[in-house]
């Protein structure tokens, strides 16, 4: 009888703790609720979904609410899928970390002979930011292939490859084009074939105008003096490799769980992606392959934020604790790293 009462007490205490945490999260994200651009948050612990909560509107013009199946533009969270595609090709022996741009494209400018795939994965290539190369008169959206052309039209870099960490959207657009060159398939098709379909991420896709469309889409918003304005496309929104994937917290749960396994690529390669890399002089940088790294209470954290016109996102993982926070929003403001850290602390401390 004592064991029954003790078990009931433990269950009650656990339930109470969870309710207290949920109240704190509701308070933290209260600004996202109601008739405002919203958010979806999921917390995964030991493989179980312990929090699945939605706030506010996915489409402010049509008063459509956010749900766990709402698909948000991931922005730079996309980079982990781009790196995974490259690692898949590396694992198959089709390219290597030391493969250079000049080896992929023989007509690439001479500076490409010194830039290899590892440099690009780790943002140490020194390639010029493509955003600075877009003409002021441009009105058509830039695509990954356009980024490649821009980079092939210049003959300089910011620094010698491997000397400095400088975050590079150019690099990840180029990685998407390497995927196309080596696989013979479009970047979006390749992601679907090797990642999304095998993991049953059935509503996740790299958006291409006129080719596919996003179901249950969250539309981005920017704040103005008169309130929120629906706006989620810019000149660079069609570049896929650095930020063009849309997904939901439901699908990203499947992605998160796959990262503990040998699915798609061997676990050793995934661990390498979650490991701090080094510059030429041995200095360690807080970046792996498509993942940033930090610590929380001495626990190693692998994460990536995304920021685009009308949206902010993050996937924040503490592998040693089997704890993940996924936060997706459709507004152009909010410190997603602080939000994810705060939520993670609530679950570590309870």
General description of the model:
Helices cover 33% and strands 20% of the residues. The chain is α+β, with helices and mostly antiparallel strands. It has a single domain (32-349), classed as Beta-lactamase (3-Layer(aba) Sandwich), CATH 3.40.710.10. The strands form 5 sheets. Strands 2-1-15-14-13-12 form a 6-stranded antiparallel beta sheet, sandwiched between helices. β3 and β4 form a beta hairpin. 44% of the residues are buried. Residues 5-13 have low confidence and may be disordered.
Brief descriptors of the model:
single chain, 350 residues, alpha+beta, Beta-lactamase, globular
Return the structural class: alpha+beta
The major pleated sheet works out as: 6 strands, antiparallel
Radius of gyration: 21 Å
H-E string:
HEEEEEHHHHHHEEEEHHEEEEEEH
CATH architecture: 3-Layer(aba) Sandwich
Strands in their spatial order, largest beta sheet: 2-1-15-14-13-12
Number of strands: 15
Which shape, going by the Cα principal axes? globular
CATH superfamily: DD-peptidase/beta-lactamase superfamily
List the helices and strands and how they pair.
Layout: H1 2-28, E1 39-45, E2 48-55, E3 57-59, E4 64-65, E5 72-73, H2 79-91, H3 101-104, H4 117-121, H5 144-152, H6 169-183, H7 187-196, E6 205-206, E7 221-224, E8 227-230, E9 245-247, H8 249-258, H9 267-273, E10 277-278, E11 284-285, E12 292-296, E13 299-308, E14 311-318, E15 323-329, H10 336-349
Antiparallel strand pairs: 1-2, 1-15, 3-4, 5-9, 6-9, 7-8, 10-11, 12-13, 13-14, 14-15
Helix pairs in contact: 1-10, 2-6, 2-7, 5-6
Compose a concise summary of this entry.
With 350 residues, the protein is α+β, with helices and mostly antiparallel strands. The protein has 10 helices and 15 strands.
């Amino acid at each position: 009888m004592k064991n029954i009462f003790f078990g009931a007490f433990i269950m009650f205490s656990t339930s109470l703790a969870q309710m207290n945490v949920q109240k704190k999260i509701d308070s933290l994200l209260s600004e996202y609720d109601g008739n405002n651009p919203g958010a979806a948050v999921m917390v995964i612990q030991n493989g179980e979904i312990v929090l699945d909560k939605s706030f506010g509107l996915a489409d402010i013009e049509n008063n459509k609410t956010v749900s766990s199946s709402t698909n948000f533009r991931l922005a730079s969270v996309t980079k982990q899928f781009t790196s995974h595609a490259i690692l898949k090709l590396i694992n198959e022996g089709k390219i290597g970390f030391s493969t250079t741009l000049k080896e992929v494209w023989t007509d690439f400018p001479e500076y490409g002979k010194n830039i290899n795939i590892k440099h690009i994965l780790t943002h140490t290539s020194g390639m010029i930011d493509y955003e600075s190369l877009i003409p002021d008169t441009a009105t058509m959206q830039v695509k990954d292939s356009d980024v490649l052309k821009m980079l092939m039209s210049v003959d300089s870099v910011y620094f010698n490859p491997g000397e400095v960490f400088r975050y590079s959207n150019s690099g990840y657009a180029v990685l998407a084009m390497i995927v196309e060159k080596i696989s013979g398939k479009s970047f979006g098709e390749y992601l679907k074939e090797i990642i999304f379909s095998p993991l049953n991420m059935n509503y996740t896709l790299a958006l291409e105008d006129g080719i596919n469309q996003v179901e249950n889409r969250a539309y981005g918003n920017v704040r103005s003096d008169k309130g929120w304005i629906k706006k989620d496309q810019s000149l660079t929104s069609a570049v896929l490799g650095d930020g063009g994937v849309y997904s939901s917290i439901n699908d990203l749960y499947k992605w998160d769980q796959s990262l503990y396994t040998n699915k798609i690529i061997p676990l050793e390669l995934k661990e390498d992606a979650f490991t701090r890399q080094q510059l030429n002089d041995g200095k360690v940088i807080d970046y792996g392959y498509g993942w940033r790294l930090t610590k929380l209470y001495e626990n190693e954290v692998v994460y990536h934020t995304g920021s685009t016109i009308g949206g902010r996102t993050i996937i924040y993982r503490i592998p040693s604790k089997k704890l993940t926070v996924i936060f997706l929003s459709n507004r152009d403001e909010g410190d997603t790293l602080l939000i994810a850290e705060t939520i993670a602390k609530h679950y570590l401390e309870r």
